[in-house]
Amino acid sequence: MTHITLEAAQQMIAGAVAHGTTQGYAPLSVIVLDAGGHPIAFARANDAAPGRYAIAHGKAYGAVMLGMAGNKLNEIAKARPEFMTSLNTALGGTVVPVQGGVLVKDADGKVIGAVGVTGDTSDNDADAGQAGVLAAGFVAEI
What is the average pLDDT value for the chain, to the nearest integer? Predict the structure, then answer.
């Protein structure tokens, strides 16, 4: 199994932020978690609100803990809100079930971590996260 190195995490963050800048997105905050949900790296763009860490973390944490990207988690939250409430209770209230939680997979399709992006619309956050994962040479699932 491949692991996400600090260098790869930094590439993901740089790729996501660069994509957001190119697309004219609002200042982004980006976190990269390993397969166990532990932070590897985080960056908050200039002018991004300090509370963005918790949002980025919640997007990535939900994705990696359930093995489902933010789009799928958002669908579940809408269809089965009682399940999402229970899940969030079980995980300490840390899941943010919206777009922007991007699964990071190795070449074999195994989940090796997640990226959480926040700052613009949730769809744009997911787009930037995907760009960051691809910039580091991994497979992204949004």
Answer: 97
Nearby residues of 87 by Cβ (< 8 Å), 6 or more positions away: 66, 95
**C-alpha to C-alpha distance for 142 and 36, rounded to whole angstroms:** 19
pLDDT value at residue 79 = 98
Considering only CA atoms, give the Rg of the chain. Answer: 14
Name 26's Cβ contacts closer than 8 Å, sequence gap at least 6. Answer: 20, 48, 119, 120
Alpha helices of 35-121 — where are they, by DSSP H?
Answer: 52-66, 70-79, 81-90
Record the pTM.
Answer: 0.97
How many whole angstroms separate alpha carbon 126 and alpha carbon 107?
Answer: 20
Q: Is the pLDDT of residue 1 over 90?
A: no
Q: Is the C-alpha dihedral spanning 39, 30, 17, 23 positive or negative?
A: positive
As a whole number of Å, the end-to-end CA separation of the chain is 21
- The structure tokens 């996400």 sit at 4
